[in-house]
Amino acid sequence: MRIVVTLSALALAAAASPAAAAGQDGSLWSHNGSTMALHESTGRIVYDEPKASIAGTIRQGTVLFEGRFTGRRIAGTAYVFKKGCEPAPYPVSGAMEDNPRGFGSRIVLTGAAPRRDPASCAIIGTTGAHSRLVFEEMGDI
């Protein structure tokens, strides 16, 4: 049984985004092979197009992150997903930074993700080390 750890990243400074200036709500971000939609108006990052390997567990519109930002600093709640179980929340924090690949911004969040019992939905601890969530800007919606 495979556990999918996904989280997420943040409500970006709406005033600084071209999407906000154009009156659009959101921008697209890449995360572990899935396309995410960042909605500035709600402070959420949701799955827009889940990658095929998680499509049975994650649907379009599933919330990965809810939080707040102060300048380039980000903090909030990310979620761990397992098929048949409720999402497990955990605190994450990080920052928005320039993408070293050249285009737009990158969000990097870290936090100790919950670890589930392989035979149930029970949370039996944390990952110990911080999980690292990376989102790379793709463009405006």
Please tell me about this protein's structure:
The protein contains one helix and eleven strands; from the N terminus they run βαββββββββββ. The chain is mostly beta strands. The protein is globular and about 40 Å long. The termini are far apart.
Outline:
It contains 1 helix and 11 strands.
Describe the secondary-structure layout.
Layout: E1 4-6, H1 18-21, E2 27-31, E3 34-39, E4 44-49, E5 63-70, E6 73-81, E7 88-98, E8 105-111, E9 114-116, E10 123-126, E11 131-140
Antiparallel strand pairs: 1-6, 2-3, 2-11, 3-4, 4-5, 5-6, 6-7, 7-8, 8-11, 9-10
Question: Strand sequence of the main sheet, in spatial order?
Answer: 2-3-4-5-6-7-8-11
Sheet of most strands: 8 strands, antiparallel, barrel
Q: Fraction of residues in helices? A: under 10%
- From the spread of the alpha carbons, the general shape counts as globular
The whole-number mean of residue pLDDT values reads 81
Structural class: mainly beta
In total, how many beta strands? 11
Strand content: over 45%
The secondary-structure element order is EHEEEEEEEEEE
